[in-house]
Amino acid sequence: MSKPEATENWYSRGKAIADKGIPKNERVVGVGIVVFSAFMILFYAAHQMGSTGFFTAKFGMLEMVMLYGCLVFWIITAGLEGVLGQRLLSRLFDTLGGLIFATIATGWLLVVFPFEFAYLADVLPDSLKFLIQWISNDIARVMIGLGFIGYLVAAIYAPKAYGFIGKKRSKSKE
User: Fold this and answer.
1) Among candidate residues 115, 138, 133, 31, the one with its CA nearest the CA of residue 67
2) Average pLDDT, rounded, for the chain
3) Would you say residue 9 has pLDDT above 90?
4) Which residues pair with residue 55 across a beta bridge?
5) Is the pTM of this model over 0.90?
């Protein structure tokens, strides 16, 4: 990666990096994330509509926005980059709010914890329940906590990684 010119702004640096193209394997991962996130929305909606007990009384409208909003965030970013090939738009969405929302949402869900993971597998066929029935509330809290830390690091690091922040170079007179 070449050094940015002193006159470049954050947008042109980010665009230059994004314009390098998206490798096929990254696009495949993006499509996979979109499919997985859509499946998770349907999975959680099945819990809600079936009143399985997975969502506790603490799961109100705000928690619903936080949970489903994180999944929509993944669909938007992965869809822009993996499906549509729009890396710059994906990175702008990530950097200018997407990761911040996901961090706040995950932190909120960790604090409120409106789930009862004993019922997590209830909407799956019996032959598939073994895949997730081992997840307890304690394990879920650890996983959500790790997700929160990951989002927090990404929200701080993404602007730099995507080239939207550059060091100001002072020109010294020799």
Assistant:
1) 115
2) 86
3) no
4) 115
5) no
Residue 172's pLDDT band, with cuts at 50, 70 and 90, is very low
Tens-place pLDDT, residues 33-65: 999 999 999 999 999 999 999 999 999 999 999
Structure tokens at 11: 């947008």
Which residues are CB-contacts of 151 (< 8 A; sequence separation ≥ 6)? 99, 102, 103, 106
SS3 98: helix
The residue among 41, 61, 44, 38 whose CA lies nearest residue 115 is: 44
Give the CA dihedral 67, 26, 166, 75, nearest 10 degrees: -20
CA atoms within 13 A on the CB side of 88: 12
Which among 51, 42, 28, 100 has a CA at the least distance from the CA of 71?
42
Question: 């099945």: which residue's tokens?
Answer: 46
Q: What is the pLDDT of residue 147?
A: 96
| Helix, coil or strand: residue 58 | coil
Nearest Cα residue to 13 out of 161, 155, 170, 171 = 161
